[in-house]
Amino acid sequence: MENCMKLEIAALSENESFARSAVAAFALTLNPTLGELSDIKTAVSEAVTNCIVHGYKGGNKSEKVWIECSVDKSGEAGELHITVTDNGCGIDDVERALTPFFTTLEAEERSGMGFTIMQTFMNGFSVTSKAGEGTKVEMRKKIVGENVGSRERLDA
Amino acid sequence: MKLISNRQKDELYVKLSGELDEHSAALARREADRLADSNADCGRVVFDLADVSFMDSTGIGFLIGRYKKFNRYGVKVCVANPSQGTDKILSMSGVYSLIRKL
């Protein structure tokens, strides 16, 4: 592992913006394109929002969400690994939760597209959950970057 | 999230600026619905997304919800100027099949 960071935030919706911006700032060390950065911010926002809205039923300042990031430079392109974890209620049926447009909160105008966006915008995605114990989402994003030449020069 | 509106004859123009996420959506929803109620007689509403610096799937729910609200008054809903990131989310979720992009 080349580089890593770990964040613990209170499960409050006002922290959603901080969480995605912090991960984006960390990702900058890999020299991502604006598109890659936007994908990362969106996926992290979906994952953290899920923890708060679903895992902790709307949020609670005494509950926590954990976000861990690490950089993997072993492949051709650098890769950002992101893990978002909560100790909330968990998901009874993960397969159903992954179905596009499926939501348990129809009345609140939830689109049911959170997991679909994470899967589409990232290069790797998995979710493990146990009812009553919590949920862990793991995501990987390949960072091809804008200009490989300039990165090589910076590294040299 | 801030909403600035301008009514020109038959068209209501609403410019959204800032980040549209789960946290900011409640206020945006309230404000947009207030505009819907007071502009029930217009023909079309345009949500200008040029200054939306971030949007996640909350934006899908927000736009579909406003589509339903304005649709009850017979008002057509359109969006304009989404950023690349916003456009990606709205395209993949099929929002443009209900709400036209100008």
Task: Describe the structure using short key phrases.
heterodimer, A: 156 residues, alpha+beta, Heat Shock Protein 90, five-stranded antiparallel beta sheet, 5 helices, 5 strands, globular, disordered C terminus, B: 102 residues, alpha/beta, Transcription Regulator spoIIAA, 35% strand
Would you mind describing this structure in some detail?
The complex is a heterodimer of chains A (156) and B (102). With 156 residues, chain A is of the alpha+beta class. Chain A has 5 helices and 5 strands. Chain A has a 5-stranded antiparallel sheet with strand order 1-2-3-5-4, covered by helices on one side. In chain A, helix 1 runs antiparallel to helix 2 and helix 2 runs antiparallel to helix 4. Chain B is of the alpha/beta class and 102 residues long. Chain B has a single domain, classed as Transcription Regulator spoIIAA (2-Layer Sandwich), CATH 3.30.750.24. Chain B has a 5-stranded mixed sheet. Classes of the chains: A alpha+beta (156), B alpha/beta (102). The interface between A and B is medium-sized, with 26 and 22 residues.
Short description:
The complex is a heterodimer of chains A (156) and B (102). Chain A is α+β, with helices and mostly antiparallel strands and 156 residues long. Chain A has helices at 15-27, 34-55, 94-97, 114-121, 148-155; strands at 3-11, 60-72, 78-86, 124-130, 134-143.
Q: How would the blueprint of this fold be written?
A:
The complex is a heterodimer of chains A (156) and B (102).
Chain A: E1 3-11, H1 15-27, H2 34-55, E2 60-72, E3 78-86, H3 94-97, H4 114-121, E4 124-130, E5 134-143, H5 148-155
Antiparallel strand pairs in A: 1-2, 2-3, 3-5, 4-5
Chain B: E1 2-8, E2 11-20, H1 22-38, E3 44-55, H2 58-72, E4 76-80, H3 84-92, E5 100-101
Parallel strand pairs in B: 2-3, 3-4, 4-5
Antiparallel strand pairs in B: 1-2
Helix pairs in contact in B: 1-2
- Helical segment tally of chain A? 5
Number of helical regions of chain B: 3
Write down how many β-strands of chain B occur, each being a DSSP E stretch of 2 or more residues. Answer: 5
Query: By CATH's scheme, which homologous superfamily of chain B applies?
Result: STAS domain
Span of the ends, CA to CA of chain B: 22 Å
Instruction: Provide the CATH topology of chain A.
Output: Heat Shock Protein 90
The residue-averaged pLDDT of chain B reads 96
Any idea what the radius of gyration of chain A is?
A: 16 Å
Largest sheet of chain A: 5 strands, antiparallel
User: What structural class is derived from the secondary structure elements of chain B?
Assistant: alpha/beta
Shape of chain B: globular
The CATH architecture of chain B can be given as 2-Layer Sandwich
Task: Count the E strands of chain A.
Answer: 5
CATH class of chain B: Alpha Beta
Percent range for helical residues of chain A?
25-40%
Order of helical and strand elements of chain B: EEHEHEHE
What is the CATH topology assignment of chain B?
Transcription Regulator spoIIAA
